[in-house]
Design the sequence.
């Protein structure tokens, strides 16, 4: 990987700033969501168990509870594992070869070294609007941009976008959002509903923290 070159004013990217408390907080939130959704499956299992216990026998009711709860736990595990790919599919993203957008690829390459997020996957949405998102799983980090965003921004502005997205990968908020939308997506109906739930759950301070982390990465606030 090549590091981001110095700017005309001689400044270089800073060493990555880390906030262990924020990262631990988002990790805890992610775990809580998965646990809560797993426990949610016990409720229908209990109903089935009571019905079977009344109609047949208590032992069969207990067995029914174990089977239903186990099946739901397996379903949740599979949903979490496939959350990232499901989110990418929902937004209509596709892999972006680095040679198709070398400016964006070089910016991410350099800031990836600075942020400690190595080799994030680059995906693109073919649209004229300017937008971007970060998504992640335990072992993957994905930066998604629209074609309109890459075509309309300067290199300095792209650095600001990349630094912000990498900050969300680094602090765990991207994985939290991916898991929530991946688990609840089939029940939300629309992407707008999913976005509202994420915004309500993360709070306005998330954007402030990631912008500050991005400034620390690039040492060039105007890019943001």
Sequence:
């Amino acid at each position: 990987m090549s590091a981001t070159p110095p700017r005309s004013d001689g400044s270089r990217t800073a060493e990555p700033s880390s906030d262990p408390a924020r990262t631990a907080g988002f990790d805890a939130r992610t775990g809580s969501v998965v646990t809560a959704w797993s426990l949610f499956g016990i409720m229908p299992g209990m109903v089935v168990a009571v019905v079977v216990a009344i109609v047949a026998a208590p032992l069969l009711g207990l067995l029914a509870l174990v089977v239903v709860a186990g099946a739901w736990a397996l379903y949740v595990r599979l949903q979490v594992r496939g959350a990232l790919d499901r989110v990418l599919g929902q937004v209509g993203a596709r892999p972006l070869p680095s040679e198709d957008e070398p400016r964006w690829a070089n910016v991410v390459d350099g800031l990836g070294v600075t942020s400690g997020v190595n080799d994030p996957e680059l995906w693109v949405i073919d649209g004229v609007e300017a937008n971007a998102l970060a998504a992640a799983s335990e072992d993957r980090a994905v930066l998604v941009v629209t074609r309109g965003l890459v075509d309309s921004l300067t290199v300095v502005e792209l650095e600001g976008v990349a630094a912000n997205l990498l900050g969300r990968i680094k602090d765990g908020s991207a994985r939290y959002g991916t898991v929530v939308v991946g688990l609840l997506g089939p029940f939300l109906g629309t992407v707008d509903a999913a976005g509202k739930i994420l915004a309500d759950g993360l709070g306005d301070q998330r954007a402030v923290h990631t912008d500050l982390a991005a400034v620390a990465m690039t040492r060039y606030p105007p890019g943001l």
